[in-house]
Amino acid sequence: MMHPFRASTSSLVRSHGYTVFTFASAEEFLKSERLDGMSCVISDVRMPSMSGVELQTHLLSRGRHVPFIFITAFPEEGTFARAMKAGAIGFLTKPFDGPSLIACLNTALGHDDGSGN
Fold it and tell me: Helix/strand/coil (H, E, C) string of the chain?
């Protein structure tokens, strides 16, 4: 069964017309055949074994530059700074509202949200 937060985030993103693939861990994602086709990664900062920021660093070290949006319940200035310096598009603190995530996603994928922002 999918984690409730992952399920609700997936549903929100799908409701805006995006194709979504979910993974239970960074390792599962790295082993997936979806790795080459990704356009954006939405990741929790704290995950078992490999953190979201470690995942970002891992992909960058392999030449994979993909927009990252981080979500966390434990905002830490050092983690925020590290993620943003590495090119993160967004860093959202739980609880966050759906429009904030979609705005980050639209920015990450180069889509204008129509608001002029």
Answer: CCCHHHHHHHHHHHCCCCCCCCCCCHHHHHHCCCHHHCCCEEEECCCCCCCHHHHHHHHHHCCCCCCEEEEECCCCHHHHHHHHHCCCCEEEECCCCHHHHHHHHHHHCCCCCCCCC
The per-residue pLDDT for range 60-116, each reduced to its tens digit, is: 999 999 999 999 998 889 999 999 999 999 999 998 999 999 999 999 999 765 544
Give 91's strand partners: 70
68 forms bridges with which residues in the sheet? 41
Cβ contact 67:108 at 8 Å: yes
Q: What is the pTM of this model?
A: 0.88
- CA–CA gap between residue 95 and residue 50 (Å, rounded): 22
